[in-house]
Amino acid sequence: MKKFNNRPNRFVTSDSDSGWISRSCVVVALIHHDNKILCVKRGDDMTQSGKWCMPCGYLDWNETIEQAVHREVYEESGIYLPDIEHELHGPVHINSHPIGKKQNITFHYHIELDSLVDFNISVVDPGEVTDIAWVEKDHITEYDFAFNHNNIINEYFKG
Predict the structure, then answer these.
(1) Cα 106 from chain centroid?
(2) Whether the predicted pLDDT of 4 surpasses 60
(3) Phi then psi dihedrals of residue 146, to 5 deg
(4) Domain spanning 20-158, CATH architecture
(5) Is the pTM of this model over 0.90?
(6) Domain boundaries, the chain
């Protein structure tokens, strides 16, 4: 049996360039009811601020990916999924493309709601999210999306 050496994450410098040798886990929640998708506008403290995306974020220490989905949805929309009738499908896609010096492993989930629910922006950190909307699938092109979330939404509606 072959043994594997577990290397700790570390910061390295090479040829005046530096960065972490590590990967991070991210969840993306495509929440929908009928032809509407829940989208959030990224705040000033976030990368790609001012752009729209689906609720998403990094896993916390000692957290499952399903727990991260529920937490991120609540933190970014005020919607507490455990109290709402829904079906959680996923991960339906896993992406691990490197971006610059880091590599995020992204777990995409589809969440079908039995009815449209109200979001609660009053519990959301304005540095993280400045606006929330239920976006009709026919209006996706009117929004400036972060990452590739518009492509994820379009692929979902094709399927």
Answers:
(1) 8
(2) no
(3) -80, 160
(4) Alpha-Beta Complex (3.90)
(5) no
(6) 20-158
